[in-house]
Amino acid sequence: MELWPLICLAALATGLVAISIIDFRTGYLPDILQVALAIFGVAIVWYGSPVGITWEWSVLGMLINGAVFWLLRWLISNLKGRESMGLGDVKLVAVGGIWLGPFALPYIMAAGGILTLLGAGVATFVTGKPIWRGEMPLGPGLATGILGVFIAALFQVPWLQLTY
After folding, report:
1. Beta-carbon neighbour count of residue 25 at 10 Å?
2. CA atoms of 126 and 9, how far apart (whole Å)
3. SS3 state at 57
């Protein structure tokens, strides 16, 4: 693999790991790290995304991913009568859209949900008590989904198409 894709992967992985650790410990996704990842994503798309995302797909990814998650947050919060998802999760998925475009969203959502539930199950099993006062941090699952889709796109897995 060439150096440019590795640099992009390292930047994305570093930011997502930091965000995941903070979210798992505090339940908070820091805006400053998300802004940094967004800026890196824009710069990478401008320079030449190693996964083939153009600036048009990047903008669409940010807008569509963010809107879908904002609407999902609004809907579930209204149905439950309390906040169901923080705005940090919405922002994180929008940042993922900058890096990966809108067609990555189903994969990010699936991985995020599955990994969050698995992580909560493992943590509950290990600690012997339900984690997070009945809530589960979604950020680490979403971050893993974003990173996983980026890696899959780098290796050009046949089932993944980020642009048309």
Report:
1. 9
2. 31
3. helix
Task: Judge contact between 117 and 71, C-beta under 8 A.
Answer: no
Asked if 98 contacts 106 with a C-beta cutoff of 8 angstroms, the reply is: no
Q: Are 100 and 51 in contact (CB under 8 A)?
A: yes
Give pLDDT, residue 133. 58
Contact between residue 108 and residue 89 where contact means Cβ atoms under 8 Å apart = no
What residue ranges do the domains of the chain occupy? 3-154
CB 108 within 8 A of CB 149: yes
Q: One-letter amino acid identity for 79?
A: L
pLDDT per residue as tens digits for the range 119-151? 778 877 887 776 655 677 889 999 999 999 999
User: At a CB cut-off of 8 Å and minimum separation 6, what does 57 contact?
Assistant: 101, 102, 162, 163
Alpha helices in 81-104 (DSSP H): 87-100
Tokens coding 3: 């150096």
Q: Say how far apart CA 58 and CA 16 lie, in whole Å.
A: 18
- Asked whether the beta carbons of 146 and 12 are under 8 A apart, the reply is yes
Q: What confidence tens digit (pLDDT) does each residue in 64-99 have?
A: 999 999 999 999 889 988 887 889 999 999 999 999
Task: Determine contact, residues 38/95, Cβ cutoff 8 Å.
Answer: yes
